[in-house]
Batch of 2 targets.
Target 1
Amino acid sequence: MRVRVRFTKLGKVRWTSHRDVARMWERAFRRVRVPLAYTGGFSPRPKVSFGLALPTGHESQAEYLDFEVQEGATVEVDGLPARLSPALPTGVDAVAAAAVDERAPSLQEDVTSCTWRIELPVPDGEAGRLVGRVLEAPSIVVTRERKGQKVTDDIRPAILGLSVLGATEAGAELEAEVATRTRGLRPAELVTALHPGLELSRACRINQWIERDGARWEPLTLPLDATGAPHAEPVGTGGRAP
């Protein structure tokens, strides 16, 4: 049995690395006694796989992981988010879970684009001018580092959508949809394309998308009563998991 979980990463926990988030989840699974399947060999590892890595310092309302259940064991999938969230640090909340086809491609293979909300420290009028210039450009060639090597890419094809949502206290908020293939485009790289030297104030991943044969959907949608907002931290000595 293969189960997919959608979760958030909001607030101070955004500074936690992808590797540390994986460790958080392994501890949470142990605490609520989820019967995970393990790999073989001298160093067995739980069969848990994550989607696209979230850059450290960014938030998300749409992160995903898949895990496999031990052969012969069962998991009550509907109640899983409510069991897992209290075992996770504040800001990391399980918001949906569902069984998925064991033959389905991995999340990293399946996701083709992401939607981001990006806040810039410039007035919304200036943000609109920068966005318009990028959308009108036939190509945007940048040099960036990948796996320790400098590579030159035209990132314009990766910008699938870009608009100004409005003014904020810190400046302006943008919504951007960027491709994840063949080379993914990070929010910081997009902001540099808007104006060299400009730094984003905040970035939050809102959606991840799978597109195939003209159709588009999320790896796992939220229940109708879910908001994606973090649960309130319990009052008293109990609190959330460290």
Note: The domain at 112-217 is CATH 3.30.70 (Alpha-Beta Plaits).
Target 2
Amino acid sequence: MSCIWLFMGMLSHALNAQWQSFTPALPDTVGTYDLRIAPNNNQVAWAVAMKYDVAPTTYTWEPLDSLIFIKTADGGNTWTGGTFPLGTEPYANNISPVSADTAWASGVDASFTSYIMHTTDGGQSWQRQLETGFTSPASYIDCVHFWDAQNGIAIGDPATSANDSVPYWEIYKTADGGQNWTRVSSANIPAALPDEFGYAGDYFSVGDHVWFSTFNYSTFFWMRVYHSSDRGATWTASNAQGGFLSFADEMHGVAWASASPNTALRYTANGGASWTSLPPINGATLSSLVIIPQSNYLLSVQRSNNVTGPFRTMISTNLGQSWTEIGNGADHAANAKFSTPAVGYAGEWQPADHTTRMYKYAGNPLTGLFSGVALDATVNTSPNPATSLLHVQIETADPAEFTLLLNDLQGRLIDRKTIDQTAQGRAQLDVSTLPAGLYTLTISSEKGYVTKKIVKQ
């Protein structure tokens, strides 16, 4: 039985920020490792967290006696936290919620024993499942995922079976909430390549589809992405050379490969059957990369170091050809997940100067920017070209709240303003100190967005 810490979310940023942050009452300052939204209820999200020794550019994992989980059941307005056992010196792989009460988590302990843990009372108590799986010295669990309270899957590294002397991916399915598990036949899974292993917690699921990434244990390069369209019964594999997967739907997804100081990006439009390269992100490391459902826009949180920032929240409407900064650099929103353009959550990596935060995407009025819908409004800017003050006038049929973003051609955020609920909004931006050149003005409400080119003389 684990104790539960309950806290009311304490907002540390204004409501017009792209993230709202909440400070949980946890037993320690920790780093969120994995965050997931419940498949059929986007008001529910759970995260699992671990302890790290914070350094300016690296983290060193520090084992605790148990793992920490954090969850919300009301769309991120309040959160609860607690602990669950996972052997001696546990290391988390992932967490998989299906409701506010029911979730699964996976990981390994100091002896590399694999665990699947299950709760049906919101984390008050946890029970171990599939103790007979992942017992081979060569195989460790990589993730567990449930589509509902009955149907789930557990994925681990290649191992032999009673009928197979050649190791193959150790994948199990259950249809009774994890009471009984059946291993998927080797005939239904493409054979593993030499030194190919799964990456802990790196999987994604949309509908009946599920994907997981692999890497080369000798070189630590990303290798392939495995895909199943039937909840893990049969599988295919593609040469993605990327991980940290995110999918907007059954077809469109992104992956990335760290190559500091640049980050290579991959993209698929056919469910992972093939992947193409997107423009790399240069000079920054990613804390989050998400492809937004419905719009297929990309959101990233970029950093130059782990703990001090700035942490630049960026959005790309053209698959990484260009990026626009939408945040103030203070929000280290890692492991972000979005279920719709208006519903997203993230968990902070362990900070050096404050307690761990959880994030809820504020949505309005930047929801329109994430949705990709054109704003039905008349927008006038004057004078344009401008020398000192730029006047912006917005007219819409229905009152709305607006966010104005002024960015340079490199996507850096120059200025940001919010206009309160109105059908006829007015604002002015001081551009007098800006270098002469071309800038982009984005006007967004919850119903859509529009961009204007601004010339500074």
Note: The chain has one helix and 35 strands.
